[in-house]
């Protein structure tokens, strides 16, 4: 879901996920800039009526940045004597209000509300309609353009258009309504606009009617299944519509004409994603169709059956290797279940929308790219949360302390929420976990939900009371920070493992209770209850951490070559685990992808050991997975020694662009003017924007001002999201040259 100024972070997270590896080990002591406990407390809104149906008629003047509206609202009373109703209404002028018989009603409009006196009191469950006639406020829509229907001037990237900016509470800026997610409605949009504009909206398209005399066209859309108000969407632009389908479900891509040639590169996997989610969630796709509609807004907004998607995800063929769109496309599609079919009851439960959709995009990424790429994807999510925890704040995932709903659409709701679901899956097992997801969707379809509804579903489907799990991971802030050490007793043939939790608990972070897998390689177990691992020489223990300090003892036939804490990488954690050089060398060559990367990074402190240098170089050359090779290159780069120039130059030819970019960065950090020609050569031959950009930045680090002309020419080259231009300008700044 798009979220204000942070919306671009969502896009960048998916686009640059492959560049995120490990954060430095830290102590768990934070200096947060934001204290959520000091924010005002917010509550779910109370209602005096139930909104049943909204019929919105709009005449759109895109060039004039104006609209006229007629909203027919069908409501039912929740009070025994409902005489006055209050609607959210802002940034337009209400001209009159009629009852269902066309009789005028008294009303009062304030800055944010519309108060209407009904013709008579209505009893509980009694249904009635009112019609509000209104027109856009010239000042609001021509100057502030802050919410509601946003009018965009034509640019090189997009034509003139209008698009609704409804999330999270912007719908009432373009029609009067009850604007809070705990009420679900059906709706119709009847919008007229000049040709060649086309109008996109929710639900099914009932009709398209041309008005020859007025030279306009009217689109009639019907969304006949209930959804929350903020999910109502409208856009009008001279779109080209690329038609697709999954079985009998229409799937369409509404794109700006200049992007039509490249659009399928970003969207073509949508039918495959839909099939995957239907099977994974055990729930049919719930809507009449699925459209993805280009808008000049950041990120995506998963409006029901009609995702508003930033046009910036459409890219040329060269960008595909570094900027695949499957993350954001699958995330927004997953919202059609998580956020649209079921929807957060109130904003403090944002993770029910965002954590579930973020975990879903991980599930698809793993399915599409394989388990190793999936592991890197999940690691990126963990680190995105940890960066926010380290640099900004920690808060409970579910909190009713916030200034505005946007506060809660952060890495806690998205990435930590996804990681919490992954840990829940580990505890429940795959069969029970996906049974819970299916039942949760079935039980609460077309309803608002909260975290307790999910907790109840877990109990009733599995019989497991996991209140303790949700209490520590969802309703309390923070995460565990472990200090781990192991000791081998040769005489007793025992491995002692001490696990301490050292996180700061002064601001509510608990001492965590959790299971964890300990993988041991190179020895056989003498204990009952150990599990045979995937490798011939591996045994696995499942232990429970329950205290601030825990001690475990394992009986083995010989000293193990590798002790792996959190085998399988299930826990959201920070940790230190001092190991010998010999164990790290073994782990760097024999563990899973995450373990190999971690071990290679830990070997950085053994730079003076010849065996380490040889092994890390060999890993950088030969490891079968790009992220491990990249980590090895970064480790060598951290040693900042010119004796590695030849090796790093060779790695600038690696088959993976991320490894090449890491090698170019490492070479650039050496600040050698003699490498300028090499960097120019790399820029000219590489077929990756990311690697080319790193070559330009490396040029800026040489200190050679003779590179100015080359950099200026590079800055003039077109590239996806102006990556080349921005890198060239950065390099010129590094050289101290005016641009």
Global mean pLDDT: 94
Radius of gyration, in Å, reads 29 Å
Question: What structural class results from the helix and strand content?
Answer: alpha+beta
> CATH H-level name of the largest domain... which superfamily?
tricorn interacting facor f3 domain
Strand content: 25-35%
Which of globular, elongated, flat, extended, rod-shaped describes the shape? Answer: globular
Largest sheet: 7 strands, mixed
How many E-type strands? 29
Distance between the termini: 37 Å
Spans of at least 5 consecutive residues whose pLDDT stays below 50 are 3-20, 24-28
Spatial order of strands in the largest sheet: 4-7-2-1-10-13-12
Domain tally: 4
CATH topology of the largest domain: Immunoglobulin-like
Number of helical segments? 21
Give helix % range: 25-40%
CATH architecture of the largest domain: Sandwich
| CATH class call of the largest domain | Mainly Beta
Regarding quaternary structure, how should these chains be classified?
single chain
Any overview of this molecule?
- This protein has 739 residues and is an alpha+beta fold.
- It has four domains: 4-42 and 344-473, Neutral Protease, domain 2; 51-238, tricorn interacting facor f3 domain (Immunoglobulin-like), CATH 2.60.40; 480-578, Aminopeptidase N, middle-beta domain (Immunoglobulin-like), CATH 2.60.40.1840; 640-739, Leucine-rich Repeat Variant (Alpha Horseshoe).
- 33% of the residues lie in helices and 27% in strands.
- The protein has a seven-stranded mixed sheet. The chain has a five-stranded mixed sheet with strand order 15-16-17-19-18. Strands 8-9-14-11 form a four-stranded antiparallel sheet, with no helix packed on it.
- The longest helix has 21 residues, at 371-391.
- It is globular.
- The two termini are 37 Å apart.
């Amino acid at each position: 879901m798009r979220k204000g100024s942070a919306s671009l972070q969502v896009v960048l997270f998916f686009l640059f996920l492959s560049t995120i590896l490990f954060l430095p080990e830290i102590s768990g002591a934070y200096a947060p800039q934001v204290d959520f406990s000091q924010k005002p407390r917010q509550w779910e809104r109370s209602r005096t009526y139930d909104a049943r149906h909204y019929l919105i008629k709009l005449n759109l003047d895109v060039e004039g940045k104006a609209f006229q509206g007629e909203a027919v609202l069908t409501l039912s009373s929740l009070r025994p004597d409902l005489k006055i109703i209050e609607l959210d209404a802002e940034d337009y002028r209400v001209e009159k209000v009629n009852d269902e018989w066309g009789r005028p009603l008294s009303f009062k409009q304030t800055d944010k509300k519309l108060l209407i006196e009904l013709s008579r009191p209505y009893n509980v469950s009694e249904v009635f309609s009112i019609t509000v006639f209104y027109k856009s406020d010239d000042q609001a829509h021509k100057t502030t353009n802050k919410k509601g229907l946003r009018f965009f001037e034509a640019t090189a990237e997009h034509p003139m258009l209008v698009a609704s900016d409804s999330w999270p509470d912007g719908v009432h800026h373009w029609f009067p309504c009850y604007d809070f997610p705990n009420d679900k409605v059906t709706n119709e949009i009847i919008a007229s606009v000049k040709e060649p504009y086309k109008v996109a909206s929710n639900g099914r398209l009932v009709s398209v009617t041309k008005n020859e005399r007025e030279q306009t066209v009217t689109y009639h859309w019907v969304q006949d299944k209930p959804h929350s108000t903020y999910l109502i969407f409208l856009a009008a632009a001279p779109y080209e519509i690329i038609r697709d389908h999954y079985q009998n479900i229409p799937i369409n891509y509404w794109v700006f004409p200049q992007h039509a040639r490249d659009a399928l590169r970003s969207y073509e996997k949508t039918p495959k994603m839909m099939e995957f989610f239907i099977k994974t969630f055990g729930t049919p796709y719930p809507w009449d169709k699925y459209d993805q509609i280009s808008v000049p807004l950041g990120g995506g907004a998963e409006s029901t059956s009609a995702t508003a998607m930033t046009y910036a995800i459409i890219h040329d063929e060269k960008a595909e290797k570094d900027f695949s769109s499957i993350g954001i496309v699958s995330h927004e599609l997953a919202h059609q279940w998580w956020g649209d079919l079921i929807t957060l009851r109130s904003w403090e439960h944002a993770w029910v929308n965002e954590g579930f959709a973020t975990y879903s995009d991980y599930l698809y990424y793993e399915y599409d790219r394989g388990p190793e790429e999936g592991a890197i994807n999940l690691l990126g999510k963990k680190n995105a949360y940890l960066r926010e925890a380290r640099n900004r704040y920690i808060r409970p995932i579910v909190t009713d302390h916030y200034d505005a709903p946007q506060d809660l659409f952060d890495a806690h709701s998205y990435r930590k929420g996804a990681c919490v679901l992954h840990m829940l899956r580990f505890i429940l097992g795959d069969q029970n976990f996906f049974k819970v997801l299916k039942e949760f969707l079935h039980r609460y379809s077309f309803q608002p939900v909260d975290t307790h509804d999910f907790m109840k579903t877990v109990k009733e489907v599995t019989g497991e009371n996991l209140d303790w799990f949700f209490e520590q991971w969802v309703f309390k802030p923070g995460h565990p920070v472990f200090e781990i050490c192991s000791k081998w007793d040769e005489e007793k043939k025992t491995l002692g493992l001490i696990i301490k939790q050292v996180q700061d608990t002064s601001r509510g972070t608990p001492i965590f209770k959790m299971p964890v897998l300990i993988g041991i390689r190179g020895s056989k177990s003498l204990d009952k209850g150990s599990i045979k691992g995937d490798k011939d020489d591996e045994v696995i223990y499942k232990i429970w951490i329950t205290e601030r300090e825990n001690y475990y003892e394992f009986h083995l036939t010989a000293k193990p070559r590798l002790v792996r804490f959190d085998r399988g990488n299930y826990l959201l954690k920070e940790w230190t685990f001092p190991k010998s050089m010999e164990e790290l060398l073994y782990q760097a060559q024999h563990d899973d992808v995450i373990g190999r990367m971690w071990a290679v990074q830990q070997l950085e402190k053994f730079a003076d050991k010849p065996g380490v240098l040889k092994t890390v170089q060999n890993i950088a050359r030969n490891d079968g997975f790009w992220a491990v090779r990249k980590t090895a290159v970064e480790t060598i780069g951290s040693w900042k020694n010119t004796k590695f120039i030849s090796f790093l130059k060779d790695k600038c030819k690696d088959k993976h662009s991320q490894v090449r970019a890491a090698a170019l960065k490492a070479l650039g950090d050496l600040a050698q003017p003699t490498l300028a020609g090499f960097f120019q050569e790399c820029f000219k031959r590489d077929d990756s924007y990311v690697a080319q950009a790193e070559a330009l930045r490396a040029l800026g680090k040489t200190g050679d001002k003779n590179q100015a002309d080359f950099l200026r020419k590079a800055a003039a080259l077109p590239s996806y999201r102006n990556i080349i231009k921005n890198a060239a300008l950065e390099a010129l700044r590094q050289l101290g040259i005016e641009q």
